[in-house]
Amino acid sequence: MSTPSLLILPGDGIGPEVMAEVVRIIDWYGDKRGLKFDVTTDLVGGAAYDVHGVPLADETMAKAQEVDAVLLGAVGGPKYDVLDFSVKPERGLLRLRKEMDLFANLRPAQCFDALADFSSLKKDVVAGLDIMIVRELTSGIYFGEPRGIITEGNERVGINTQRYTESEIRRVAIAAFELAMKRNKKLTSMEKANVMESGILWRDVVNEVAADYPEVEVGHMYADNGAMQLVRAPKQFDVIVTDNLFGDILSDCAAMLTGSLGMLPSASLGAPMENGRPKAMYEPVHGSAPDIAGQGKANPIACILSFAMALRYSFNEGEEATRLEKAIEKVLADGVRTGDLLAGEGVTPVSTSGMGDAILAALDASL
Ligand code: NAD
Fold this sequence. Notes:
Keywords: Amino-acid biosynthesis, Branched-chain amino acid biosynthesis, Cytoplasm, Leucine biosynthesis, Magnesium, Manganese, Metal-binding, NAD, Oxidoreductase. By secondary structure, this protein is α/β, with parallel strands linked by helices.
């Protein structure tokens, strides 16, 4: 197979700072593991607007469609708040997701033991937690028609429509089953089949797909119970698959089980390309953090963990992804911390690049 290709879009604010550390990790894999990537870097968000007058140039969009994976930092900042809606930095991100048709949003909630104290839940409930929420991203109530605010009689009525086709449910269910096969082979589907027809269809289609994955243990849960179970006993789950609306809420809830925004990666996957790899974009959950941008304070771990997801889900390098995650685990266990994680005894505060240095040293030690 040809050298895997990556398009890096650092974006705005802390985006370029955290991405610089990812680039060092990518170089390390090339030098020390013979895992070379064909890397191109381009502009997105406010940075693209400053140069092209749009938050994503057509040429950049075309490149994103060609590469094996896109790595994105973050977009936005106060400087761009005054721009017209059509050219706001976030539009660049939305255009990438829409035109690449990234329908499966993967949001892991992983709690490193050393950070279990940062959770609002009891340490034993979250220590060692490692679950994955797969959220349908391109359909459902955020897109369904009819929608709008109409007038009926003498009052206004707000309307949104939950609408899912079988094929939309099937493709995200397949993505979730494939993930479960790479993990602990346990999948929980969440909907509201008790009160929503779209939920009944969702459950049916998930069961149909399940027939192709006999090794995966499948469960169904109403989404409201799912929310309760996530905060009661989150370790009962492995992979959760759910629709756009429930996934929006449940993935944020699950993410916060683990503490800091600076630790949360994500992936958005689409249909397989000709080479069998899915269309894919990997990005930290956090934004451009203008309050700390340019000060060397940002935690690069969310962005580095996003690259680990790329290794696992785009490049089938699960062992190397684990190596990187273990290096991060070790660094945290040693008490190395950026400003967002400073608490407790025996911690050493480091800058963004200091955290990169420590992770590279741990990677070296892993050889
Ligand atoms: P934010 O995620 O940028 O920041 C929220 C808080 O978390 C801030 O105090 C910030 O300093 C801190 N923080 C975030 N990431 C951190 C990291 N890696 N290390 C240390 N601390 C970190 O959210 P916001 O302040 O609501 O938004 C700021 C800008 O980012 C806005 O323009 C918003 O539109 C944009 N935004 C972009 C994305 C994206 O690119 N995917 C997501 C959310 C917000």
